[in-house]
Amino acid sequence: MKKKQIILFASIFCLTIIIGCSREPDLNKNQVVLNVCTSFGEGDGHYDTYQNLIRDFEKNSGVLVADHSEISSEEWKGNVLSSFSSREEPDVLFFFTGQDAKTLIESQQVVDLDTIRTVYPSYGNNINTSVLNTMKADDGKNYALPVSGYWEGLFINKDLFTQYDLPIPDDWDSFLDTISAFRQNGITPIAVSLGKVPHYWFEFLIYNYSGPAGHLTSAPTADNPLPESWIQGLTDLQTLYRMNAFPENTEELTEMEAVALFQDKKAAMLLDGSWRVGNITDKEQVILIPFPSKGEARINTDMIGGFSMGFYITAKSWNNPDKQKAAVDFINAMTANESILEFNSSGSASPISARTSKGSDPLLQSIITVNSQATAYIGAVQDTIELPVRNAFFEKIPAIASGTLSIEDALNDFFELNDKTIE
After folding, report:
1. What is the DSSP secondary structure assignment for residue 121, as one 8-state letter?
2. Is residue 293 within 8 Å of residue 208, measured between CB atoms?
3. 395: Cβ contacts below 8 Å, ≥ 6 apart
4. Model pTM score
5. CA angle, 230 as apex, 224 and 233 as ends, to 5°?
6. Are residues 307 and 378 in contact, defined by beta-carbon separation less than 8 angstroms?
7. CB 402 within 8 A of CB 240
8. Scanning 7, 22, 165, 403, which has the fewest C-beta atoms within 10 Å of its C-beta?
9. Residue 64: Cβ within 10 Å count
């Protein structure tokens, strides 16, 4: 996400309390019960690894884990934050850094690493300092320990390209040609839920015009309420929509339904991230390629990636004598070197160190190739935007794509809401 991470990524990118829980332990009044909330819910690529690590931790520590995990989404983020405002927060949280965690930090509901290390000096000492430096909050402190980084790229069903004798796109023009060809053959070109998860298409289409140097500062501001990169990127979204690049019911599809279209070979391409690798079923015919570039600001090998999530200890558990050590021990178990290798075995980014691999299957081989050729990694501009503003804007994406809402009007709405939120 920031400068030194390229070294780490070069060889390989080595819920909620109020919704309900996916795993409740058998209670025993003499045992500590640790309430944990993460994005490693069933269906997430890390789900099996996480559940295995929980079982090992319970066996070794005697602590029982009440796991409240769901797959990450904007709704999930909102529910997590609501659990804190209603004082129903978990003891341990795996959550985003940046703007998403701002309210938790400002309200002192999560504990910083320096405070934890005054009692437990070795806490998180195996995590590279250079990685932790990229995850600091606005107050200059670290609060979260990562287990993996992330990258985003374009997954393709290579067998569909072979079946219809189509070249793998390496620029914008060939990408559009591919879309037209698949649509003519009755294959949905792109699996996406524009109504629920438009994030990655929004991100890369703008990145094509903002480039690594300007992407994180490209959001509308008082000085630039109608940024050209956003107008151009959203115009390309409208072009794709008119080409029928997306599923016919893209506005109503859930994220998992969109992924299923890709998994079932009913769609040719899926723009997603490293978290998706673990639950892709066909690792022989699915491969990763860079998102096709357009214009001069970004080249194909400029990627979006970084370290944006980690384990937090909440003030609630830190101030509880019965739970403090259990929370520390749990995160130590999750972030141990061996655990991190397990979390990253499918091709995600290891925050410990770079590691080389030849890849155990074509998908992993392609991931290694794409990341080894990366010329830049930059974080997501959406992570610089306040959650209410981002949610309101993303809700407008289907209308923007279809042209029923003009891009200029959508950006003006964005700016007005953002201005009020900041005030």
Report:
1. T
2. yes
3. none
4. 0.70
5. 160
6. no
7. no
8. 165
9. 18
